[in-house]
Amino acid sequence: MTAPPFRRGRPYPDGDLVMTAAPRPPSRVVVVGASAAGLAAVEGLRRLGYAGSLTLVGDEPHLPYDRPPLSKQLLSGEWDTDRLRMRTPEVLEGLDLDLRLGEPAAALDTAAREVVLAGGERLPYDALVVATGLTPRRIPGAEGVTGAYVLRTVEDALALRDHLGRKPRMVVAGAGFVGAEAAAVAVAAGADVTLVSAAPVPLADVLGDEIGTMLAGVHREHGVRMETGALVTAVTSADGAATGVRLSDGREIAADAVVMGVGAVPAIGWLAGSGLSLGDGVECDATLYAGSGVWAAGDVACWLAPRTGRPTRVEHRTHAAESGLAVARNILAGPGAGQPFDPVPFVWSDQYDLRIQIYGRTRGADEVRVVERGAGPRELVALYRSGDRVCGVVGVNRPRQTRGYRALVAQGADWHEAVGTQDAAPVAG
Amino acid sequence: MRVTVDQDKCVGSGQCVLAAERVFDQRDEDGIVVLLDAEPSADQHDDVRQAALVCPALAIELAE
C-alpha cells in the first residue's frame, strides 16, 4: 500500500490536525493477551526499536504457546506440550518484558489510561494493545459437566486427550475446522465419533457445497457418523457426567464425551464501560486503532478492512501474527499516521491425509470453480468469486500450487480473466 | 544469520516464501518448506525475520 504523497489539511481521525506538534512517542506500552497476536506485537515493537517499558499480560499461567496444534498434534499425542511453546524463555528474556502471566485484566480505564488487573493493580499506558482473543461458546447443560469439552487452552486439549485414551463414544457438536479436526483425531484414536453439523453440508458456508461434500465423504470413510442439518441444543448429563446431546429435531445421541466446536466470541467482557466501541470485537479503524491510545490485534480486533471496506474479524493464526506486527508498526507511527492493515487472510486445516489451505475470504462466495487438479481425486485448487472478482482460493493437497493463485486474491483479479482459460470442472467426491 | 527449518512442524502455508522467496521454497508434492539459503546475505535478513515471525507453525529458527 502506497502512502499518499501529501497529507495537507487532512485531519487525523482523532481530530488533531497534521500541523500540530507530533504526538510524543509512547514510553509505556501494555499488551493484554499473551498469545500469538500479543507476542507478535511485543516482538514487533522491540524489533522496530521501541526501548520503553513493555508489559505483557496473560490470563493463563503459561508462557505463550501455540493453539492450532491443540486440535491436531497435541490431541493425537504426536506432540507433547513443550512443542507448543512459541518462544524459549531466553528469547522472551531478551525482549525485556514485564511479563504478567496468570493475571487476567479485569477492566480498562480509558480516562486515566490504565488497565486494571483482576488483583486490583493498575497498569498505566501510553499505548495499549488489546489481544485477548476468543472465548469458546458452550452449549446449554455443559456447565460443570465432566466429559463436555471445548478446545481453546492446553488444559482443554489434554483433558480431551486423556478421555480419548478410554475410547469414548463421542459427539462433536459443530463441524467447523476445530470440530472436524477433533473428529479426525478422535476416530483415529479409536473413539466412536458422531459429527453434528448445523449446515446440510459441513463447511459449505466456507468452502462451498462441492468441497464440503468431499470432506464429509472423507469423514464417513474414516468411520465418523455425520448428522447434518441439526443443531446440538443441549448437553445431557447424569450425576455431573455427560450422557450425550439433544438435537434441535428432538433426537438424543448418547455419548460420554462431547466436544463443543460451536465457535467462539471475542473476549471483550473486561472492556465493558471503557468507552471503547464494542460490537463483534473491539471496533477499529483501518489501522487497527480503536481510539484513546488503544489498538487491537488478533481474533478480537474488528477493523475496517481496506480490501472490502467492511468491519472484519479474522480468527486465523497467521492473522494474529500479522495484525500484531501491524499494530507494533502503527503504534510507533502514532494514531492517524499508521498504515492501513490490508492482509490476504490465510488459514489451513489438516484432516486425515488432507491438507486444506485457504487464502482470502471464501465464506458466502457467489461461485466456486475448480481450476487445477492433481493426480489423485482429492488434489485440487478452486477459486472463489465475489461479484466479478476473485475473493479466495482453496487448495486440497496442493499447497505450493495453491500459493500460486494467491496473487489473484491479493489483486482482486477479474473473475472472467482469472478463470477464462479454465474449463469448469466438478469436484470428485 | 543462520536459518534452520523444522520440516516436521511445517504446515505448508507458504508464508515464508511470500516473505523471502530467495531463502525459502516449498516442495511440489506436499508444500513443505525447502531451505534455499541457510546463511542469507544481509540484505535478506529483514525478510527472513519477517518470515520467521509470520510462520504459523513456528518452524523457522534464526541464530543471529
Keywords:
heterodimer, A: 429 residues, alpha/beta, FAD/NAD(P)-binding domain, Enolase-like, domain 1, 3 domains, 6-stranded mixed beta sheet, 5-stranded parallel beta sheet, 11 helices, 28 strands, globular, disordered N terminus, B: 64 residues, alpha+beta, Alpha-Beta Plaits, two-stranded antiparallel sheet, two-stranded antiparallel ribbon, 2 helices, 4 strands
Global shape of chain B: globular
Q: Which residue ranges of chain B are poorly predicted, with pLDDT under 50 across at least 5 consecutive positions?
A: none
* Count of strand segments of chain B: 4
Per CATH, the architecture of chain B is 2-Layer Sandwich
Cofactor (chain B): [3Fe-4S] cluster
GO molecular function (chain B): 3 iron, 4 sulfur cluster binding; electron transfer activity; iron ion binding
Function (chain B): Ferredoxins are iron-sulfur proteins that transfer electrons in a wide variety of metabolic reactions.
InterPro entries (chain B): 3Fe4S_ferredoxin, Fe-S_cluster_ET
What is the topology?
The complex is a heterodimer of chains A (429) and B (64).
Chain A lengths: L27 E5 L3 H12 L5 E6 L14 H4 L12 H6 L3 E4 L3 E5 L4 E4 L4 E3 L2 E4 L3 E3 L11 E2 L4 H11 L4 E5 L3 H12 L3 E6 L6 H4 L1 H13 L3 E4 L3 E7 L2 E7 L4 E3 L2 E4 L3 E3 L11 E2 L1 E4 L4 E3 L2 E3 L4 E5 L4 E3 L4 H17 L12 E6 L2 E7 L6 E7 L6 E7 L2 E8 L2 H6 L1 H6 L3 H5 L10
Parallel strand pairs in A: 1-2, 1-7, 2-3, 7-21, 9-16, 10-11, 10-16, 11-12, 19-22
Antiparallel strand pairs in A: 4-5, 5-6, 8-17, 13-14, 14-15, 18-19, 20-21, 22-23, 24-25, 25-28, 26-27, 27-28
Chain B lengths: L1 E4 L9 H5 L4 E3 L6 E3 L9 H10 L5 E4 L1
Antiparallel strand pairs in B: 1-4, 2-3
Function (chain B): Ferredoxins are iron-sulfur proteins that transfer electrons in a wide variety of metabolic reactions.
Cofactor (chain B): [3Fe-4S] cluster
Keywords (chain B): 3Fe-4S, Electron transport, Iron, Iron-sulfur, Metal-binding, Transport
